[in-house]
Amino acid sequence: MDEPTASTHQADPHRRARLRWRARRGLLENDLIFERFFERYELDLTDADVGALTALLELSDNELMDLLMARAELEGDLATPEIAHVLAILRSC
């Protein structure tokens, strides 16, 4: 794997810390999923993955939980291959 450049998410530990902080949720179930996700995949995330994750984090806790538990599917602006990829990884956690 290539070394991350200074402009990428992975090259900046402060960006990674901010993303982890932003992923903290009000619902314990969401927190547990994100905790497992970051433990397994944090160092492998691409900038596209980070962008997709950021879009998911804009959702309310309940909307996000419905997506994570497959009670709802991606719609509208969220229905992109990048977001679907990250959601699939989150659902596997």
UniProtKB/TrEMBL annotation:
Alphabetical list of Gene3D superfamilies matching this protein: Flavinator of succinate dehydrogenase
Keyword Ribonucleoprotein: no
The keyword Cytoplasm is assigned to this record: yes
Gene Ontology annotations for the cellular component aspect, listed alphabetically: cytoplasm
Keyword set, alphabetical order: Chaperone, Cytoplasm
Main location: cytoplasm
Any single biological process term in GO: succinate metabolic process
Pfam families, alphabetized: Sdh5
Subcellular location: Cytoplasm
InterPro entries per the UniProt record, alphabetical: SDH (IPR005631), SDH_sf (IPR036714), SdhE_FAD_assembly_factor (IPR050531)
Family as reported in the entry's similarity comment: Belongs to the SdhE FAD assembly factor family.
The protein's name: FAD assembly factor SdhE
